[in-house]
Structures are given as C-alpha cells and as structure tokens.
Design goal:
Structural class: alpha/beta
CATH architecture of one domain: 3-Layer(aba) Sandwich
Helix content: 40-55%
Shape: globular
Radius of gyration: 41 Å
Strand content: 5-15%
CATH class of one domain: Alpha Beta
Strand order of the largest sheet: 6-9-10-5-11
Distance between the termini: 75 Å
Largest sheet: 5 strands, parallel
CATH topology of one domain: Rossmann fold
Number of helices: 29
Number of strands: 18
C-alpha cells in the first residue's frame, strides 16, 4: 500500500474507525509524541577542539580523548576580526545592565590631569600602570581613557579583566579578542607568534600579578600599549621594567561633597555637608565611600517621607523596621537622624538592612561565594522568588557592586563588612544550594559552553567553599558540580577554570571516597597537561588514573588512559614508564595465567593471540635513534637507556615471543595443502642458540637419519634438503611415540623441562595418522645432550620424530577446534 495515498481514506474511511478526522487527529498527536521523545533523550555535549597539533574530543561521560590531528582535519587559519566585529564582541562582553530604574550618571571629578597624562603616554606607545587603593575610581578612569584612545592603534582598544587571571590567560584573551578562531587553541609557540603582530591599546583592569609574569606579558606583545589598573598590594614590576607608574589618590573635600550631591540628586543641608566633611577625613576621599554615603542619604529621604503615600503600591511591604533611625523623634514619626560616622565609613550592613528580602538573600549567596554575585538570571532559582532578578538593581544602586569583566562582584570591603554583620553564618548551606543549582544548569544540554564560562568564577567559588567537606554531603555536591562544569570549561576554551574545577573535583572525590570520579579527574588532568605541553605531569596523572580504573575493572577508561599515555611517550621520545609498566606486567601475567595449558604452555587460539597482541601494542613505543648514529647506534642508545627502559624492552620481547609462538602453534595444527600433501620445506634449520629466544632447535635423532624408519613405519629418507615425517591436518603429532618394545628409559636421559623424546605414548585418543606430511631437515646425526649421563655406547631401540612446535607437547587438530594434549614423560 502506498503510504502517501492510503486506499480506505480515499472513500472517507479509515481502518482504525476514526473516519475523515483520523488524519487530523494523528497529526495533532505526532508533535506531542515527538516532543515527549525529545525530552526523554538527553544528548551528551561532545565537542572537538584543536589544541596545537592535537585533536581533543571533550566527552563529559567517559572522559576526554586526545590524539594527533589527522591530516585534512586541521581547522582554518585564524582570521582577524573587523572593527565592527570587535565592537560587537566588546559590547556583548560588558556586564549586563541591572534591571530597574537607571542609575544616575556620575561625573569624573578631579581626574582631568591623570586622564590627559595617560592618553599622552599611550599615544607614544608607552605602557602605564595605574595604582590606586580599592574604591579610588580606577575603573571609571579606565573607561574614560579607553574612549579617548579608540583611534590610536590599528586593532583598536581591547578591554580585558585581570580578576583571577594569569599572564597566559590574558595572552589567550588577547588572541581571542583580535582573531576569529572557534574551537582552536594554539600552542605556546603559535600563540606568541600571533600576539606578536597585534597592535592595540589594551586596557586591563584588576591586575593581580607583577614581577616576572608581567614582564613576560609585555615582552610577548611588543606592538601593544597596556594600561594596567592595580591596587598597591599587587607585586611591583621588575627593576629594569620600562613601565610608567601613575598613582591615583582620593578626591579633595569639595569634590567629595559635589559627588555626594550628584548621587543624592539634590543639594546638601548644612548638617549633611558637615557630616560629609567628617566622612571625607575618615575615608581619605575615596569616591566609593561617597557613592555609598549618597545611598544612605537617599534611604533616609524615603524614610522621612510619609509611608502612607506609598501604601497603595505596597512599597514598604516586607521591609524590616530599622530602630536605628529613631522614628519617634518627631510628632509625625517620619524623621530619621543622619548615620553615625562609623556607619558612613562602613555602610554595607546598614544599607543591606533596608533592602528587600530577595536582595538580602542575594547578599547571603554573594558572601558564601567569596564576593562573586550570580548572574541575575540565576537569582530567581537560587532565592526562590520569581522577581529576584530585580535585586541586582537594588545592590548596584546602593554602591555594593562593582563590575568584574562580564559580571558583577561585591565592591571592595563589602564582604568583610557583611561577614561582621552575620551574613556568613550560613555560607556552607548557601554554597551547597548554589552548587546543586549550577550542577544541574551546567550539565543541561541546552546550555552552551560560553554561558557556563561566564559563570566560571561563581562556580569555582562554590566548589572552593565545599571542598573541605566539613558538612554532610558537601564533598559529593562539589564532585557533582565539578563533573558537570569541567567539560563545559574545556569546550569554552577557559582552561584555567578547567584546571581549577578538575583539581577541586579530584580533592572532593578523594574526601568523599568516590574512586571512579577521582580516576576521571586524574585522567582529565593528564589530558590537560598533555595538551599544554607538561609531559611529566601528564604521565603522573594518567598513570594514577590507569591504576584506579584497573582496580575498578573499568576497561574502557583504562584503554583511554593507555592511549593518552602512549601519546605522552611518543611526544617525549621515550617508552611508557612508571605505573604503566607495572600495570602492563600485571595485566600480561593475569592474561598469561588465563591462557595456560595443563602443562604450563600458552593455548594456541585466536583469542590468546588477540590478547597478546593487545598487550604488546599497549607496551611497545617508538624509540628514536640518536642523530648521526644510524640504526645500530640507535639500538645501542636504546639498550643503554637505563634499567627501566631495558625492563620495558624485555617485557615487549617476551610478549612478542608469545605472539610468535602462538602463530607457530597455529601453523602446525592447521590443515595442510592438498596439492603437496602437507610437505613443508625449509632451507635453513634452526640453531641451537634459538632455544634462548623461546624456539627450541631441531635436534634430529636416529629416526630422522637417512634410511631409518619413522615410528609410523614410513621411510624418512631426506629429500633434496632432508625431510622427516610429522602428522598433518586431522592427525596426531606426538613428541614421543615408541614402539611396542621401547621403554621409558631407552633414551638414557633424565627427566627435564624440555620436550620428552622417550618412547612413552601420549595420553588421550587421536585418529590414526595417514599419509603424514614431511618437514625438511638437514641430514646427519643429532647433537648429544649435555645432560645425558648414560653410556655413550648405548643405542636407543627407537627414536621418535621430534616436534618443531615452540610449545613442545603434542597437538591435535580437529574440526571442532585446536586442543593441546600434554606429553607424559
């Protein structure tokens, strides 16, 4: 039946009995079923990155895998962004505008001289370090200077944040701001080559390092002019640095009062002006203190207003009553005194007490996260209020927030003031709540990696608060958060956050006893170290991961770790050392015991051969010969590489010998060619010394001498190069088949570990041999055994044919498979 034109529907009928409306009903049900199926399937976020010459597959389920980038899959070369693209990117990276009424635009007072000096120095190509105490208005001055320098450099002005960033992070941030290279993270050499040609004015706020790292950053970017902003407690530049120093002091008294009037948006009374003068002396003229003092005055103005005028709007609903204002000072009950000088110098607790409930809860979370304020989109879920996103506007209007890159954090000194007021008592519980929320959000497939990277500071702060594991379930919550956020950090190319999350997750999993998760974090740390060029650390982390996963019988995880470790060995130019050798030996020993015959010899079968090949592949690595020494020189260098290297070579040799022995055994038991009757010729016999390599040399006996009869009654006269008879396919090969008159002592040899040549029949039942094939052997007498203590004049009555098999015992090949029959000496 045609699925497009069904027969019954042509006549207005349906086989299900729904009539003409069945098609519409079915169409209405299909989207619901499809949506239900899509919601039930959660796809893992697997991303492929290109760090250097590697191909990194970030797999949040089984762990990341790294390999050399295959030819033809290299990404396109980085392309420079246009001016419009840089502007759009800078606008998207700016902190979001807080909801609520717009805050008043404050002027930049008494900064004209510093502003002009900074612009002149940057126009000359000089780099400047602007140093000022926290709250001195460094960020506002940087914004003004960045506007003035927009057209000075070919690559424009680049804004970066140094908050919790290293010199390497800033170099990659500079590269990403100028070049469009998605999913590409160049190695150190390529990174330095790219940033060397960038010509821009780099405005960097919240610098947290100095000394040698700062000199490294300046040396790597000779065409850039930097404007750093740092506090006095940050390390100073080197003594021979050419960095200009500009110190930013506080405002004078008149400018401080003017700033306070702009915040309040009215003129100050005489009482308020005197209070502002005392505050200026106490705070040394820091602009942040006067912004917060202006917020105190605005709150005072609202409290002095008749609350009945706002009853219909419910403005004061849910607000706590503040007894410090003495609202019974006048007959109306609406007057409030000025805050004390101490409250004006440290106003965070007083400001927070007059905020709404969601705003105070937001401050609790921010204190628990070390000053990091969650994005406004997360506040409704964390606080439990659908309108909690408006709390960010309240905090910003009170001067309790300051921008930090693309987000906000608590202003300088606010965390200490709130902790003194008791906001840190429930920090552990708040951090655990934030960790659970972020773990669900970061692991959701619909959340892109860039959004998770934007919340990296808050996520890492939540893990750092929980990692000590003092409370019940805190370490497990940190493990879950690290497990969800670390792959997103890696996919978003925020590798410093990736490393922090992995180390915190590894410590938390160790505390909570989650060995499988600890092995995962060790594996990821090893992959990260390999991609960044730290081979020693990569080897240590991967060996730890392989050992843990081996103990847990995590076969797939151990294989992924061995692959990465083999790549480490290949990149370092040496064999796999350390724990992998022990792990490989233990694995080889256990597999050898599993595949041993009753007499202690390996089973000849495809399964054993495949296992042995896998073990050999896991342990064999490339050893490059020394330059100018040729092949022999390279072998000498490899042999003289040390005891550990020789141990690896010996282990690989033993495994290779096992593989070859298995192949020989399979060949001896396979079907012979029907055309030549199973005759195999060899032009070169085995030497006696071959026994040292695991292959016993052929020792012809009297049965293989010319003109002698074999135990089967066949003549064993040699051909062109000598031959003797052995059983073929479907026949029994025995190392000693004696005639009726032979005795076990007829050979005159004591029992040894070598294949027996006595005339003892093999145990078991085998088919009667017919037309045995011959294996060529050089004619001549056999070599005497050095362990033979019998009389040289004694001659054995019958000498059976010896076996060429490396395994020694007789082997029976049948239609059901290959078996091994031990020889009874």
């Amino acid at each position: 039946m045609d699925p497009t034109h069904r027969g019954p529907e042509v006549f207005g009928q349906d086989m299900d009995g729904y009539g003409e409306d069945s098609g519409r009903r079915r169409q209405s049900r299909e989207p619901l079923i499809a949506d239900f199926g899509q919601q039930s399937l959660q796809q893992a976020r697997i991303v492929q990155l290109f760090p250097g010459d590697f191909l990194l597959t970030v797999n949040p389920v089984d762990g990341s895998e790294v390999e050399l980038c295959p030819p033809g899959e290299q990404p396109a070369a980085p392309a420079r962004r246009a001016a419009a693209e840089r502007t759009d990117r800078e606008r998207a990276a700016a902190p979001p505008v807080p909801p609520g009424p717009p805050a008043p635009q404050l002027p930049l007072l008494e900064r004209t001289q510093e502003r002009e000096r900074l612009v002149r120095l940057l126009a000359r190509g000089r780099s400047v370090r602007l140093t000022g105490p926290a709250g001195s208005g460094r960020t506002s001055l940087l914004n003004a200077v960045a506007t003035d320098c927009a057209d000075l450099a070919p690559d424009g002005v680049i804004r970066l944040s140094g908050h919790k960033r290293t010199a390497t992070d800033l170099l990659y941030g500079l590269f990403e701001a100028v070049f469009d290279a998605p999913l590409l993270r160049p190695d150190r050499a390529e990174l330095l080559e790219k940033v060397k040609g960038i010509g821009a004015v780099v405005v960097l706020d919240d610098l947290e390092f100095g000394g040698a790292p700062l000199e490294e950053l300046l040396d790597a970017t000779p065409e850039c002019a930097f404007l750093f902003a740092a506090t006095p407690d940050v390390a100073a530049p080197g003594a021979d640095s050419h960095l200009e120093e500009v110190f930013l002091a506080g405002l004078d008294r008149s400018a401080s009062v003017e700033l306070l009037e702009h915040v309040v948006e009215r003129s100050l009374t005489e009482e308020e002006a005197n209070w502002a003068g005392d505050l200026w002396f106490e705070s040394e003229g820091l602009p942040l203190r006067f912004v917060q003092a202006g917020a105190l005055l605005r709150q005072r103005d609202m409290l002095r207003t008749d609350p009945a005028a706002y009853d219909e709007f419910g403005y004061f609903d849910g607000r706590p009553v503040d007894d410090s204002f003495g609202q019974d000072t006048d007959d109306a009950g609406h007057d409030a005194p000025l805050p004390s000088l101490g409250e004006g110098a440290a106003p965070a607790a007083l400001l927070a007490s007059r905020l709404s409930g969601p705003a105070r809860d937001t401050l609790h979370f921010a204190v628990a996260l070390g000053g990091e304020v969650p994005h406004q989109a997360h506040l409704p879920a964390l606080v439990g209020d659908t309108h909690a996103d408006a709390a960010l506007g309240e905090l910003a209007g009170c001067g309790l927030l300051s921008p930090a890159g693309s987000r906000y954090r608590l202003a300088a000194g606010v965390v200490a003031q709130l902790e003194a007021a008791g906001y840190g008592e429930d920090a552990a519980d708040r951090a655990r709540t934030a960790a659970q929320h972020y773990a669900w959000w970061a692991g959701h497939p619909s959340v892109v990696a860039a959004r998770v990277v934007a919340e990296a500071d808050a996520i890492v702060a939540a893990m750092a608060r929980l990692v000590p594991g003092d409370g019940a379930g805190q370490a497990s919550a940190a493990v879950l958060l690290a497990r969800s956020a670390a792959p997103a950090f890696a996919a978003g190319l925020h590798w410093s956050g990736w490393e922090k999350a992995l180390r915190l997750g590894q410590e938390a999993s160790r505390i909570s006893g989650e060995v499988a998760e600890e092995a995962y974090f060790h594996h990821e740390l090893g992959v990260l170290a390999l991609c960044t060029g730290n081979l020693d650390r990569a080897r240590a982390e991967l060996e730890a991961s392989i050992g843990m996963r081996g103990a847990l019988a995590d076969k797939s995880g151990a294989v992924a770790g061995r692959r990465a470790l083999a790549l480490v060995a290949d990149r370092s130019g040496g064999p796999v050392l350390g724990g992998l050798v022990a792990a490989g030996e233990n694995m080889a020993a256990s597999r050898h015991e599993d595949s041993v015959s009753p007499v202690g010899l390996p089973v000849a079968g495809p399964t054993a051969a495949r296992r042995t090949s896998e073990d050999a592949t896991a342990l064999i690595s490339r050893i490059a010969p020394a330059a100018g020494s040729g092949a022999s020189g390279g072998r000498k260098a490899a042999l003289l590489g040390g005891a550990r290297r020789n141990l690896v070579a010996a282990g690989a040799g033993v495994l290779l010998a096992g593989v070859l022995g298995t192949v020989v055994t399979l060949g001896m038991t396979s079907s012979s060619d029907a055309r030549d009757g199973g005759t195999v010729t060899t032009e070169q016999p085995a030497d006696e010394d071959d026994t040292e390599n695991g292959f016993p040399a052929d020792e012809p006996t009297d049965a293989t001498a010319p003109g002698k009869a074999s135990p089967s009654g066949k003549s064993s006269a040699p051909g062109p190069s000598g031959s003797r008879t052995v059983p073929g396919a479907g026949e029994t090969q025995s190392t000693g088949q004696a005639g009726p008159g032979d005795s076990p002592s007829s050979t005159g040899r004591p029992p040894t570990g070598r294949p027996s040549t006595s005339g003892t029949p093999t145990t078991g039942t085998s088919p009667t041999p017919s037309k045995p094939p011959t294996i060529s052997s050089p004619p001549g007498p056999s070599e005497p055994d050095p362990t033979d203590t019998s009389d040289p004049t004694d001659t054995p009555t019958t000498s059976p044919a010896t076996s060429d098999s490396a395994s020694g015992p007789s082997t029976t090949a049948s239609a059901s498979g290959t078996t091994v029959e031990p020889t009874v000496a």
